[in-house]
Amino acid sequence: MITRSTHLQTKLDNITTQTRALVQPERLAVTDMAVHDLLLTGIEDRVLPVGAMAPSFHLPDAAACALSNTSSSRTRFVRSSDLLAIGPLIVLFFRGRWCPYCITQLEAWQAAFPQVRERGALLVAISPQLPRQNDFTAQHHALTYPLLSDAGCHIADDFHVAYTIPEPLQQHYRSMMINLPFIHGDQGPNTWRLPIPATFVIAHSGKILFSEAHAEHRVRPDPYDVLAALDNHPGS
User: Fold this and answer.
1) Domain-wise residue ranges, the chain
2) Fewer CB within 10 Å: C terminus or N terminus of the chain?
3) Tell me: the pLDDT tens digits for 41-79?
4) Homologous superfamily of 23-68+77-183+194-203+221-231 in CATH?
5) What is the secondary structure of 201-231 as a DSSP string?
């Protein structure tokens, strides 16, 4: 049985309302313009659709990073092929621990995680953060599903959800002490790349059953709408 307390989008809209009440209009305008310009690039139209085959991935898991993100002996990699051998897979692309919308989404999926497992499915969340940053995220927010590191957004590129942050927004983030070169481990020209928030459901076969991504980072699908894709494809 599907139960929920509050729709995820309602919680995200509350964040937006609070932010607009506290932040100067000229600063809000920088983000709003960046969202508008990103939407005009047509990025949403290029996202891998339902019916496409999902790209495979092989990414480091935050759970194994412990105190160091440089020691290869501490690194555990997660392969999508191994996960899909167990059951269908839900994949979330999120921006980072600095984004309150992402954290709210990750917490909503933690609340829904028992129902993910009831359906025989698995869940991973992918960001360009270093494994150590993902580990901080998991520990601070009590997340029990894997957080994987996609340095340089290469896997996000494969799903067609990656973009480069424009210079005005880079400066805006710096002014708010969002230090992406530190969070991402300084990936050179890829340091300022992010995924648009994206959610995919992938069947055993590798076929995408659900695909939703938004240039507007303040909009995310509700976990229970995503879970309905699994209910509509039993045995996937």
Assistant:
1) 23-68+77-183+194-203+221-231
2) N
3) 999 999 999 999 999 999 999 876 544 444 444 678 999
4) Glutaredoxin (3.40.30.10)
5) EE-TTSBEEEEEE-SSTT----HHHHHHHHH
